[in-house]
Structures are given as structure tokens and as C-alpha cells.
Amino acid sequence: xxxLCGVFGYTQIMAGLASGQPTVLTASFDPLQTxxxxxxxNVVNFNATDDMIQSILDNNDLEHPLPNVRxxxxxxxxxxxxxxxxxxEKRGIKMIGLYGMSEVQALFALQxxxxxxxxxxAGGGKPVSELSAFRxxxxxxxxxxxxxxxxxxxxxxxxxxxxxxxxxxxxxxxxTEDGYLRTGDLAxxxxxxxxxxxxxxxxxxxxxGFLVSPAEIENHLISHDEVIDSQVVGIKLADGxxxxxxxxxxxxxxxxxxxxxxxxxxxxxxxxxAPMRIFAxxxxxxxxxxxxxxxxxxxxxxxxxxxxxx
Length: 310
Prior knowledge:
Layout: H1 7-19, H2 31-40, E1 45-47, H3 50-58, E2 71-74, H4 81-90, E3 95-99, E4 109-110, H5 117-120, E5 124-127, E6 133-137, E7 151-156, H6 168-174, E8 181-189, E9 195-200, E10 205-207, E11 210-212, H7 214-222, E12 227-236, E13 242-250, H8 258-266, E14 277-280, E15 286-289, E16 292-295, H9 297-309
Parallel strand pairs: 1-2, 2-3, 13-14
Antiparallel strand pairs: 3-4, 4-5, 5-9, 6-7, 7-8, 8-9, 10-11, 12-13, 15-16
Helix pairs in contact: 2-3, 3-4
């Protein structure tokens, strides 16, 4: 279901050809046609954007719309991904977290199926190839980190790209001396030999001298009964320090109380992680891409800077 012009879709169709397995293609995505074709052709492998799964769930009344599919790999672009995955699970669609990028031919790792629900849907996992390797490095001092210590993810393996075409400077910057690719992603290792994708390094917050994933604060805000969804970005103050600013979609706009949500954070989190301001929005700014709908975090940062300085 991925566009064949992108690396993910291209590598899927090439894998099907190389292994001699049939592949079901459609001219464009249609949720009802997708369900019908998956049943007719006994489709067992399925990767999809969050929007596709949402559309399949919303546009048919079948109790189990994809009964033959073993699991659905998804990159979790939607901010309500856990809620979506739970809805899908109730209708027999088992979601699983993946990790990949074009530089490693799209798919690099996936979560084991035997994990608990929340662990299984998280981005990251174990490499698909036993010949692949990964590690996490402190971006400040260069030290290789152990489990539960967030840092930049580095990967290598048989699917790793050779170079950026006609750009030796970018290639040299992307690779370590021993051949690992610097992914630009914040991740942490787990004790059982997996890694968890946390955030793009460009979106990571440096609060109180520590690297903090916005997702940690976002999940805490969503845990409040009055919040449907949240996004957290960082802004620099005049003194050069970075602070978190939150945006939430409240269940009832009229009942939104910023002070209540700030106390919700201050009561349960380190004070430096609590957003300095929290604003209510009817919806987040988004953009469409080949991988589905993405939140415009740059636009949220611009909004945060304007509202705080104003």
C-alpha cells in the first residue's frame, strides 16, 4: 500500500519479486477495496500508514476486516497512535512497531510479536537481519551508552547505503569511522537487546541539562482526563535556556484550564520538564506526505515563540 516511488514501497515490491511471492497492487488506496482484495488474495503481509488503518476501521462494519493478516507494520506518525492501535486490536488487526529509513532500504527493525501491547506498538525493535548491529551514543561526549540512556542511534548492516550520490561531504558526515550510520534519531537500548525510537534529534528538548523526549511530556499531558491529544515543543528564552511549551486538544474547549494542566505536570514530573505554558488548540497543524499525515512541529514552535513572547 506504500507508494512505489518511495524507498519503503520500492523495497517491498522488489522483495516480492525476488522471493517469487505475489503482490497485490491498487492504483490508489481505497479502504473497502483494500479489505476485499486482502480477503480474496489471502494477503498476510501488510504495512500501512496510520491514516490507512484509521480509514479501514472507519469505513466498514466487519468485525475482523483483515482476518488473514498476521500483523500490520506502522511507523506511528499519528499522535493518537496508541488509541488507534487499541481500536485495531479489538477488530483483529495486530499493530507492530517498526524502525527504518531510506539509508537502510526502509525497514531495519521491528518489535517482537510476543511483547505486551504498549511495548509491541512502540517504534524500534530488533534488526530484521542477524548481520545488522546498532548502538546508542551520547551526542555531547561521544560515549557509547547502555540501556535506558537516551542518545543518538547508530546502525549498520547489509542493507546500509553505500553513499549519498555525488555528495562525499554529506557521506563523510553521516558515517562513523567504523562504518555505522548516524541516524539523527534519539533512541535508547532495552535490557533484552532491542532499541526504542524516541524522537528525531532535531525535536529533542534539552531541559535542565538533560536530553528529554517531547513524547514523555506529551504522554503525561494525555494522561489527564480533560486532554484528548498533545504536542510539546521547545523554545529558547532570552537567557539562552530552552523550555518546553505544550499544546493540547481538550475534550471541552470551554473547560480548558492551563493552570490545572501545569500542576498535573509539576506534581508528577521533574520541574524542569513541566511546560512553562500550555495552550489549547482545536486541531494541530498538519501536512500530508507519502507516509501519511504528519504534525508540523516547526509551525508549533513558531506558534509557541509568538505566544510566549507576546
